[in-house]
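Database export, one record per block. Field names are fixed; values are copied verbatim from the stored entry.
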Amino acid sequence: MGDFPPVYFLSLASIGRCQYPRHHKIIAADRDLMSAGRSRGQAAARARNCILALPPVFGDWHDAFTYKGEEVTRVAIYEVIKPAIASPFDTINEAEFTALRVN
């Protein structure tokens, strides 16, 4: 969307949810001294079912791009949005697990 003060995160997340209900929404907050970006980003992400992304450096995403480069910044965002890999222990039932045990 763009660069907005953290006070607008909740409103923008609501607008994004209404206009693009099938898309994943990412709040790319700052990792700042006063934690305003992170705390308001977390609150908006929880309230509007969004994904919170914090930069890999202390500062904002522009700082990450400037100090770490495009590839590191891209990877940091992709790491946040990629789906979690399901553990076989989360998807297997007890009977299947018992059948797999070796005596």
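Remark 1: DSSP finds six helices and two strands in the chain.
Remark 2: The helical segments are 9-19, 36-48, 61-68, 70-81, 88-91, 94-100.
End of record.
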